[in-house]
Amino acid sequence: MPEKDVVTACVLVIGNEILSGRTQDKNINYLAKGLNDIGVRLQEVRVIPDVPETIIATLNECRAVFDYVITTGGIGPTHDDITSECVAAAFGVGMFRDQSVVDLLQSYMKNTPLNEARLRMATFPEGAELVHNPVSAAPGYRLDNVFVFAGVPQIMQAMFDGAKNQMIGGAIMLSRSVSVELGEGTIAPGLSELQDRYPEIDIGSYPAMRQQRFGVSVVMRGTDSDMLDAALVELKDMLTALGGEPKDESIADPAAAPSGADN
Amino acid sequence: MPEKDVVTACVLVIGNEILSGRTQDKNINYLAKGLNDIGVRLQEVRVIPDVPETIIATLNECRAVFDYVITTGGIGPTHDDITSECVAAAFGVGMFRDQSVVDLLQSYMKNTPLNEARLRMATFPEGAELVHNPVSAAPGYRLDNVFVFAGVPQIMQAMFDGAKNQMIGGAIMLSRSVSVELGEGTIAPGLSELQDRYPEIDIGSYPAMRQQRFGVSVVMRGTDSDMLDAALVELKDMLTALGGEPKDESIADPAAAPSGADN
């Protein structure tokens, strides 16, 4: 991977359970934040069903477009865990059984015999470099620019945290955020002018209801800290001139963004 | 839209704030469940950034493939709200200002003047049929098979609930779900056999940690209630024979699927 400023990623959430509404995804947000921290920009997420043709085609489309692709889900022992077969098919490679993983799983399972189903978790596309699973033993892996992780959030997080040092990030996106109890329409003209003056900063406006009152958070993202600070001063001046009381907001604080999404 | 058995949908989440990790999406799960209730199968979700080329290309790709496309986000008054312009470009149509919406917004805003930014919320792609917004007045809309909703969850939900009677669903996916404290690998062979005997049922296996113990939920989905009940009896017999104590699980109960995702 060459060193560059903008390094991109795509997350593929593989799982009927998200699409059926049974399960609320918790991996996208964790990965979005974690990738941002290492200078990798999450540029697309796709949630796709457990359908081989869909998984293979999506993998091949996305691994050609993005620097990194992360998949979550479908690497367990049951019949609906088909991610590894699909990764192998997408790369046009065979599968191999890793004896060290067989031993690991046998040790983890203690006296329970390793049936064929469990042995599938020791079977990987050729070329896979394993990613340690400190939670439940069965590893994830990396193949070229594709990282294949489990879907269970605790396991996915452990795998990502263990593997992220293998991802070479670019310039890290920094951010400044303020909240204000003004209408979006009130601040829109000034915000648009500010965006025009700072084309290198990405300015987002996110309305949210808090205690039945509409407010708005303005988030400025960019790679130049000084530029962000200068824009922040202008932003606060603009909001104050409109009668608002802008408050600094920590993006890391989930309470600061309780229900929001772009209107 | 012709009447048919399998009616599909795709959700496009338009918003940098989801990709940056600032905001945890709450719309996908609501839409997944709501679509399922009316016999529409959510088959793909894409989260894409506020980039016109990406939005336009994705819209055109997805509206050709799926029966319905639902977009969330980007219809507010600020410079980063570009969904409507992109929808118009995707359909190759112009935009029009709806005077009834101008009046509605003016009435909602009371004494605040409608600046150009707010008037953007009364401007729609030609052919748009408006979708009422009981929360904050500015409407969503439908254009052909594309539904354009707000991103703020409270508003999005109200728009979907108001518009869903316009979607003609197919056969409704029913489900049966049981949880059991057995390893996935233990139940995998029997589950695979069951899946082979019931090819019309989609059987999913979802491990989850509860109070530090691994358990698994088995979800069976299909359109034939009697067939599901027959398969459920076989499933429970199989799990009991393996030493488990299968418990019926309500999929509607979020506590039943606290952290899960396909392994």
What does this structure look like?
2 copies of one chain form a homodimer. The first copy, chain A, is an alpha/beta fold and 263 residues long. Chain A has 2 domains: 160 residues, Molybdenum Cofactor Biosythetic Enzyme, Chain A, CATH 3.40.980; 83 residues, Alpha-Beta Plaits (2-Layer Sandwich), CATH 3.30.70.260. The first copy, chain A, contains 9 helices and 12 strands. In chain A, strands 2-1-3-8-7-6 form a 6-stranded mixed β-sheet, with helices on both faces. A 4-stranded antiparallel β-sheet of chain A has the order 10-11-9-12, with helices on one face. In chain A, strand 7 and strand 8 form a beta hairpin. The C terminus of chain A is likely disordered. The interface between A and B is large, with 94 and 94 residues.
Provide tags for this entry.
Molybdenum Cofactor Biosythetic Enzyme, Chain A, 2 domains, disordered C terminus, Alpha-Beta Plaits, 263 residues, 6-stranded mixed β-sheet, alpha/beta, homodimer, 4-stranded antiparallel β-sheet, 9 helices
